[in-house]
Each structure stands twice: as structure tokens, then as C-alpha cells.
């Protein structure tokens, strides 16, 4: 199974491949700040053309262009989902070297986006190059989908998926993320949680009043507090009727996979978070079970009245709470939104406005899907150990519109991330050895997905 | 009872008296910004010396100097409490003329502090001048106490009162505020509510986490929500054990006074506040009864996690609530603080920190006290109608350390405020006619207090 010429090609062209990574990092494609988008989409499209791919730019609703490319032929089609946009580099003063100037130090490459997600994007393209140079024609058809709005919630991706569904059909999808965990074992995930994000707004007088009026003027901060209290109590149970109805229990395969995942060191995690205990004192595999398979209702933000230093006696005119619901299969974000409205009305809070800030469906792939098995088998080949298979991740991504809605199973893998990558933070970095190893992982994945 | 020469003196010296008011307004004595304090204290001290008073500056704990002055002799001593500090002038762009440049327009004088409290301070000093010039020696001893920290919660006044108690003893105290209400009738108040201001802090992880961790990491925003919910429920009843135990019911005299107070137009007030109903649909005199005689527990501010535009999926590391308790006689702020701690502990919230941001005792004077009756009788003389007698105001001031603790009854009156004064707001102003009428009120009050 070892692809010796493939690996030799990578080693031989090391300097050029890295220089190419530096080129794309130099383009400051910060979608939140609308910087460098066109240049980076063009760079990615031209790089894919140089590979021999047919390319086009797709978009919807005026969103940033998505670079679409197909290359190769075969009975199976592999969709590769990556993104060329990155998080803002701020706070700049915490970077040891300029964020858009890829810098090598101690066997690592530092730069904004190098881990999330330009490293994975480039190593996957470069792996195809290495394949073509050493193995000949691709045994599968590969479709690259490289979007430019991942860091701003993939705003227009669902519309692109609806419009261009026929272009996106595939037998499996390789997801953007990937790498090794703390124990240096490679990780494969097969799903993502969904989400429904809302803002609750309680309103009182039309302007902030002197707090002495609290004797007879309604206080929206109290209204919001009471309304929130009906959503979840100190027992942690979400009280919205019907909320748990669609929760699909973990399958036997899910639980078998769970049992093989190293739960990590509870004490080390507690120390890192600065906590003395987790909720309900859960630990180890039980903590992980909740993390992967349970939905949540989280207050992400609260604001009302005076929030500065010291005291100010004010009766607020408005109070706001931002809440995210993380959803597991088979929950539906639109249904959660309806349940929330019905619940607040039933509890006497029809005065509280719900602003819908967006939802995504949960997504899951069967653990025996071809793409999952290819990711696992190729990781085993290249890393010489059993990869860690997560039935899902606890986070959310646009897997549903791109994959699940079209019937495409999905897995992560063939990525260069590691526990110290500082994704979204200053001094984001990857390790050089991981970059080349993940390229070999990608090569092996092509082989396994074809067979 | 008419003091014709007194009134004539005021009319004759109108231009100079107003110029003097302009002089003190020009000094930007913003205590919150530590501007112009020494200059203004010096101005006040020199003005009182020119009157013939003996003066000294008092202070404690490094606070802004309090100008202390005594003048006159008589069997009764009248304490006059005013302050020379003012609120910040910001937002400057909303002023039609420069805030520290006293400007006459349409029979009004505009300037920061002209209503709160430099107008009252100057007209009271000028009334004493007019008395001395027209009536001869004062029939009472007057003690002026002009502090420089009223707009920053009279931070060091309690310590000054403890240290210099012997200098502050009096038979009655004239409080800083005063003027006419919407119906143009003069107002006299005989007390103030107390307050206990706290900040509640709930803490979770030592830094904000990705919200997916909500499956097993405690969320301080939920902890705070649940804790707040135990303080007060949708029925408005404060649930802290013992909170109502010391509440003194309104006396027969209080209720008789309440019955004579015009409650105001409920519909107009609702429209101004942008509300469709008051709490529990209270209206009229019942609304006023609550306002004057009931304690409150008010969320003045809430903050946690992400509060900007749109959505950010964060699990907050901290949540804070600012709360004021307005207290009626005979509640004790320190006791409320203890009750709150005991209550939170008993409800399982000993993880929530309480920061004490200061307390003041409620204060009340008997409605038949000499100072109250002098304020009422002099208002009747000068305004030709029955003044409105409030047993207390719904707000809070340092009446307790300055008066109640020393056994001094207190009343407001002899002030130049009106419903359009815009106290603490841009374009603060007084009406010229009110300024001179309030000076006559002050002259008449001296006469009535002496007799």
C-alpha cells in the first residue's frame, strides 16, 4: 500500500510546495472585513487550473465566489470541501511575526489561516499534483468546492447548494478539518451538530428611566430573566415542550466508536478551563457522550441597562439575550424556533421578540460509508496506528446543505492540524512534519476511496 | 407677611445676582471628571465670606472639600444642604449653547448645573444677602453645607458627618432640591428612600469558550439567570426572606398627605414612557402610593459574553448583574446585604459573588416638624396656593448621615426647578421668573422658621 514515488515527489518538491502555501497565506482573505476575497478566489482557481482541473466560480445572493473545480475520472466522485477565507488577524500586537507573512520557526509555520484552512486546502491540491506526477491518471473524479464565507457562517452556501445541486453530487465528501489529537493519533469525524441561534429582546419604556420608577414601570431585564428561566432550570433540562422529541439516541455503532475514543485527562482539562468540576461532575467517556450526542441551550450573551464601572441607578428600556441551541440528529432548527415561540407565548412572554439569527441542520454519516472507511484506512496506512473515529463533532458546519441534503456521506481527515494550532487566535500555526504527512494521507485516501 | 423691601431689593439687583450665577456656572465643577473642584469650592467659600459668614473647608478620606459656613444668631439653627459639583456636560453636541456659558433665551437660563444645584445654592445665598440688606440681622443661625461630591454618590459625606457631627447639629435642614411641579404648584418633600446597590458576579471557565462546550462546562450566564430568578418572580414580590420585615407602613399623616397629592395624568405618563400599562395596571393615587412607600429590587444592568451585532457562539466565562434595592423606613442597607448573601447561599448560589457598591439609609421627617411647616407656610405666602407635600421622594440622597443620624428634620423647598429643567441632561435650564420667586420663598422661609 505504500506509495513510495508519491512520498519521494513530496520530499523532492518540499521547498516549492511550501512557497506556494506562503503565497496564499500572503493574501489577506478576511471575509468578515471583506479584504482580499477576489484575489484569493482567483489564486485558488488558477492553481486548480494549473493542476488540469476545469473550474468555474459559483455564487448566490451576492456572496463571495465559491471556487468549483473538477478533475479526474472514475466510477466514484469525491467532493473536497475547503474554504479560502480566514478569521481577522486582530489582535495584531499578540502576533510574534506578521500574520500574513508565513514564517518558519522551530519546525512550525506561523500565519493567519495556515491551519484554518489554507494548509489543508493547499496540501490536498498538492497531493493531487503529486498523484498525477507519480501515479498517473486519477482513479476517481474529484470535485473541489472552496468557499469564501466559512468564517462568516457560510451565509450563501445553502443557496449555492440549492442552485447548483447537480454539480455537487458525489459519493463522499472530505470535510475541511483534520489532523492529529493530543496523543498524536489522527482523527476522523463523521458529522456535525446543527444549530439554531436566536436573540431574545424584551422591551420596556422607550428610554432608560431613573430606577426609582421601578415601583410601577415594567423592567425588561426582569422580564428577560423570568423568560430565560422557563427555558432551562438549574437541573440543566431544557424545558421547551417537544425539544427532545426528535433526538435520535446514539446507535450501537456510535457507542462502539465512543468507547474507543480517548476521553482525555479530566484534571488537565479542568485546570486549563480554571474549573473545579464539570456539570453534574461528569467525567471521561460520559463527558464525551454528552458532548457528542446531547443538544444544548446556551446563553452566549446578555446585555441590558448600565454595564460600565461602579453603580448607575437606571431602569433599562431594553434587555437582550443571545442564545444558541446546538442540535443533534434528527432535530430541525426551524422546528426549534417554532417550539420556542409557542413556549414563550404559553408561559406569558408573548411580549418578548425572537430574532432568528440563523439555523443549520445537524448532519451525520454512517460510520461504514466509503468515505469514512477510506479516511480511516488511509490514516492507518500513513500514521501506523488506528485513527480516532468520532461519530460527530460537537461543533457546527454547513455539512447539511452541501452533503446530507444531497445524500453524500462525509468525513474529515487528511488535515495538518494539531493541538497547538491556535485556530482563530494569534500565532496560528502548523507543524512542518504534519503538512507533508497529511499530504501523504490525502494520497492514500484517494487510493482507498477508489477501491 | 409680605416682605416688600426684600422683594424690591431682589428686583433692583437682578442683573448683578444673575451675573453671579453666571460666574459659578462658568466653573466646570464636574466631580466625575475631577474638573474645576478647587476653584468652585473657593468661589463658594469667598461668596459666603462676603456675606459675612465664618467659613471653613471640611473633608474626609481625601474627598472633595465641603464648604461649611455659619452666619447669624437665633434660638434656632437652619442647616442648608447644597452642592457645587455638577454632572458631566456630555453629550456636548446636543447642547444648543456652550454648557458652561450661562445663556438667556426665551425667559430661561441655560447651563450645566443651573438647575442642579447651582441655581438653588446661589439664590439661597443671595436671599440671605437681601435679608441682611433689608431686614437687618438674621433671626436664626444658618449653617451652609455645600458639598462637592453629590453627583458621585456623596462618597465621603458620611465620614465628614461622623467627624464633624458637632458642627452640623441643627433644628431643621433645607434640602437641595425644590421648585414647582407640572401644575406650577410648589413642592415640599420630607424624606428620601434608602438604597443598597450591589453587583452580582457569576464565574465559569477562566476564559470564554466555544459554545459547543456547554454540554459539560458550567455557564455563568445561566447561573446568574437562575440566581436572579430567586430574588423576584413575575408576581413582583421580592423573595429574599426578611426583606419586608422592617417596612414601616405609611402613617395616617402620610396617607392624608398622599390623598392631597395630584397623581398626574396616567395616560400622558404612559405615552411619555412609551408603555401601554404600568405594573399590575396601577393608576393614579395607588401608583403614587407604591412609588413613595414601597421598596424595590431592580436590575439596572446585565452583561455576559458576546453583546455585539449578530451571532457569536461563545460560552461566557463571566456574567454580571447590577441591582439596586430602594429602601423605605425602617429598612437597613447593611441588613439587606446580609439577607441577600444568606438567601443566595440557601438557594445554592454560594458561588455567586456580591460586590457591595454602596448603601444609604432611608430618611423621613415628621410632617409637622418646624422645617416642614416653615417650607409649607412660606410656599403658601409666596405662591398664593397650597404647596404639594410629599412625605418622601422616591429617589435617594445623603439625608440620613447629614440629618436623620443627628436628629435633624429635613424638608425640600425654596428651589427654582420646574418640569422642564432637564436635570442631568443637555440644555439644563431654569426659568428666570422661578429664580427670583424662589429667592422670595427662601426669605419667607427664614421668617417662618424663626417664628
TrEMBL record, chains A, B:
<dbReference type="InterPro" id="IPR051458">
    <property type="entry name" value="Cyt/Met_Dipeptidase"/>
</dbReference>
<dbReference type="GO" id="GO:0006508">
    <property type="term" value="P:proteolysis"/>
</dbReference>
<dbReference type="InterPro" id="IPR002933">
    <property type="entry name" value="Peptidase_M20"/>
</dbReference>
<dbReference type="InterPro" id="IPR011650">
    <property type="entry name" value="Peptidase_M20_dimer"/>
</dbReference>
<keyword id="KW-0479">Metal-binding</keyword>
<protein>
    <submittedName>
        <fullName>Peptidase M20</fullName>
    </submittedName>
</protein>
<dbReference type="Pfam" id="PF01546">
    <property type="entry name" value="Peptidase_M20"/>
</dbReference>
<dbReference type="GO" id="GO:0009014">
    <property type="term" value="F:succinyl-diaminopimelate desuccinylase activity"/>
</dbReference>
<dbReference type="GO" id="GO:0046872">
    <property type="term" value="F:metal ion binding"/>
</dbReference>
<keyword id="KW-0645">Protease</keyword>
<dbReference type="GO" id="GO:0005829">
    <property type="term" value="C:cytosol"/>
</dbReference>
<feature type="domain" description="Peptidase M20 dimerisation">
    <location>
        <begin position="192"/>
        <end position="348"/>
    </location>
</feature>
<dbReference type="GO" id="GO:0009089">
    <property type="term" value="P:lysine biosynthetic process via diaminopimelate"/>
</dbReference>
<dbReference type="GO" id="GO:0008233">
    <property type="term" value="F:peptidase activity"/>
</dbReference>
<dbReference type="Pfam" id="PF07687">
    <property type="entry name" value="M20_dimer"/>
</dbReference>
<keyword id="KW-0378">Hydrolase</keyword>
Amino acid at each position: 500500500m505504500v506509495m513510495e514515488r508519491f512520498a519521494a515527489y513530496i520530499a523532492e518538491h518540499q521547498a516549492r510546495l511550501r512557497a506556494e502555501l506562503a503565497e496564499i497565506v500572503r493574501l489577506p482573505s478576511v471575509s468578515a472585513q471583506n479584504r482580499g476575497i477576489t484575489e484569493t478566489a482567483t489564486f485558488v482557481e488558477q492553481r486548480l487550473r494549473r493542476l488540469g482541473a476545469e473550474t468555474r466560480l459559483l455564487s448566490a445572493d451576492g456572496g463571495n465566489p465559491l471556487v468549483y473545480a473538477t478533475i479526474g475520472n472514475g466510477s466514484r466522485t469525491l467532493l473536497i470541501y475547503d474554504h479560502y477565507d480566514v478569521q481577522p488577524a486582530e489582535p495584531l500586537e499578540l502576533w510574534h511575526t506578521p500574520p500574513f507573512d508565513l514564517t518558519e520557526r522551530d519546525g512550525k509555520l506561523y500565519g493567519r489561516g495556515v491551519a484554518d484552512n489554507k494548509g489543508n486546502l493547499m496540501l490536498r491540491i498538492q497531493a493531487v499534483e503529486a498523484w498525477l506526477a507519480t501515479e498517473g491518471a486519477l482513479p476517481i473524479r474529484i470535485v473541489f468546492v472552496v468557499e469564501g464565507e466559512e468564517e462568516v457562517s457560510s451565509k450563501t452556501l445553502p443557496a449555492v447548494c440549492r442552485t447548483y445541486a447537480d454539480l455537487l453530487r458525489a459519493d463522499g465528501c472530505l470535510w475541511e478539518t483534520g489532523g492529529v489529537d493530543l496523543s498524536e493519533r489522527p482523527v476522523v469525524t463523521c458529522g456535525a451538530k446543527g444549530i439554531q441561534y436566536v436573540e431574545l429582546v424584551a422591551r420596556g419604556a422607550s428610554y432608560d428611566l431613573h430606577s426609582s420608577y421601578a415601583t410601577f414601570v415594567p423592567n425588561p431585564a426582569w422580564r428577560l430573566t423570568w423568560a430565560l428561566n422557563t427555558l432551562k432550570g438549574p437541573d440543566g433540562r431544557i424545558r421547551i415542550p417537544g425539544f427532545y422529541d426528535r433526538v435520535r439516541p446514539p446507535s450501537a455503532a456510535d457507542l462502539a466508536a465512543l468507547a474507543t475514543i480517548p476521553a482525555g485527562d479530566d484534571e488537565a482539562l479542568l485546570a486549563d478551563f480554571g474549573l473545579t468540576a464539570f456539570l453534574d461532575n461528569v467525567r471521561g467517556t460520559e463527558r464525551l457522550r454528552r458532548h457528542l450526542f446531547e443538544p444544548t441551550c446556551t446563553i452566549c450573551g446578555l446585555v441590558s441597562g448600565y454595564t460600565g464601572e461602579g453603580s448607575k441607578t437606571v431602569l433599562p428600556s431594553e434587555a437582550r439575550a443571545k442564545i444558541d441551541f446546538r442540535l443533534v440528529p434528527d432535530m430541525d432548527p426551524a422546528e426549534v424556533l417554532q417550539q420556542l415561540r409557542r413556549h414563550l407565548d404559553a408561559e406569558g412572554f408573548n411580549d418578548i421578540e425572537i430574532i432568528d439569527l440563523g439555523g443549520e441542520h445537524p448532519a451525520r454519516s454512517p460510520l461504514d460509508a466509503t468515505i469514512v472507511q477510506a479516511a480511516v484506512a488511509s490514516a492507518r496506512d500513513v500514521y501506523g496506528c488506528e485513527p480516532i473515529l468520532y461519530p460527530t463533532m460537537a461543533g457546527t458546519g454547513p455539512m447539511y446543505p452541501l452533503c446530507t441534503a444531497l445524500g453524500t456521506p462525509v468525513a474529515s481527515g487528511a488535515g495538518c492540524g494539531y493541538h497547538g494550532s491556535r485556530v482563530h487566535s494569534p500565532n496560528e500555526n502548523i507543524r512542518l512534519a504534519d503538512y507533508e504527512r497529511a499530504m501523504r494521507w490525502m494520497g492514500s485516501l484517494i487510493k482507498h476511496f477508489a477501491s
